[in-house]
Amino acid sequence: MDHGNLKPSRSYGYTTALVTTLLLTTLAFLGLAAFEREASVLRTIRAFLALRLAPLRARARLKRQRDSLATILEQVAEWVRDESSAR
Asked: Given this model, what pLDDT does residue 56 score?
């Protein structure tokens, strides 16, 4: 089978390799991001179910801790606003 003067161009091979490398790298990154997103959803569901199954006392304690953290975060936000407005 004679193909005559049809020889593959070297630049065609390099271009294909470069495009394939970039495409596979992008797909790998997107795949990792999708796995992380799914894992985050599973952790959220597990935490929700654990909270639903927790005794009332434990839920009340968790609510108090959450309220304490919210208060601290509000104080930090106020401090940051004060510091940034002073500049």
From this structure: 87
